[in-house]
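Good morning N.,

You mentioned wanting to compare the apo and holo forms, so I went ahead and generated the holo version with glutamic acid. This is what I fed in:
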Amino acid sequence: MAVVTRFAPSPTGMLHVGGVRTALFSWLYARRMGGKFILRIEDTDRERSTDEAVRVILEGMAWLSLEPDEGPYYQTQRFDRYKEVIRGMLDDGTAYHCYCTKQELDEMREQQTARKEKPRYSGVCRDRTTPREGVQPVVRFRNPSDGAVVVEDLVHGPVTFQNVELDDLIIARSDGTPTYNFCVVVDDMDMGVTHVIRGDDHLNNTPRQMNMLLALGAKPPVYAHVPMILGPDGAKLSKRHGAVSVLQYEEEGYLPDALLNYLVRLGWSHGDQEIFSRDEMVAAFDIHDVNKAASAFNPEKLLWLNQQHMMRAQPAALVPHLQSQLARLGLPSDNQELLEGVIVSQRERAKTMKEMAQNSRFFFTETVELDPKAVAKHLTAAALPVLQKVRERLAALAEWSAVAVHTALNDLATELQTGLGKVAQPVRVAVAGSAISPPIDATLALLGRERTLARIDAALKQSPP
Ligand code: GLU
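and this is what came out, ligand included:
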């Protein structure tokens, strides 16, 4: 049977790394098994769901290229279907109307607590045959009253729940709207989901969902409840730790593949391999190998992996990422050759694409602002005549290339009996505005002769400090 997985976020908070990892595991498993991956937006909680959260889910999934094969489905568009299933269950007796009032339920709970029993619905309306005047009933699922449900969880192993512990769940409120656990059941059934991979905060819902599926004549899927991601300090992941909208990682200049690589390794391993391309992840991932210990989020490791991915990527593949970071700095560029050249010469010095863009501004501007400190240090009275000579040599070059620039600067340093640094630093400050840039030959080759000479001229006009 073909594998069908789904990612079913509730748009009540911003999609963050915890949700992304669940999505990733579901997506990977479907891809690995040649199956289908479905995206379903669980927006039945209309008060807490927001359009903004839906947008972050859709844009986040697109940014990460975790494309669904089906969906997005929206639960709010399936209410007619849920109502139809509820009618069927009322007809066949797997569900019943419950007329208990809030006050009665409160009293029931108080009495049970006083008797030191676990509070649960007693089932008084199970056998009621007549409506109760003036009370709009809820609909409850008739949970089996004895026996046990065993969740054969792929991560946790078998987990047993006694049916007496599970009371009759409300599946429709008195206004007729279906409840969360019920919608999940109908959807998983209708969508043919074979593997439910989700956070282990849902494990307690599973026996109820399995009972409802069985009552509907459906075969429960295989479940895998993956452990939560904790903050680096072992506490619940919070905003401070990176539980921010996944799109913030895009803004911060992380590569989607690096973030996915980081997340796949939380709770899953493949020998001691740390760096995975997307294809390698798909080839190696198996949900059966995910372990049940919660793992801590480690921002430094994510940063390290990001640079590893930047170093390994084809420069052309990084171009759109650099472009979007440059656009944020108000420096849009579609000069493919320059963009690729900048990537190749800058990636060793930046851990994120944002940092790369920031370090590379001077490649994409007409003129540069000179950093006063760098000027004071490198554009001294003694340096300006050297810079003047550099200008002459560069202007006279027959061809403009890194090799030609390198030879010209080296020759000049030898003639002046000085180090290459004394020749290169003033040029670097003149063209980059600061004393930091990729190797000077590569920098000038990328900038081109015209901009190089114009910037040297502007620097020469500076009165020495
Ligand atoms: N909507 C649930 C959530 O966002 C997930 C439910 C499920 O995967 O079954 O936590």
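The pocket of glutamic acid is lined by residues 8-10, 42, 184, 198, 202 (CB under 6 Å).

Happy to go through it together on a call whenever suits you.

Best,
F.
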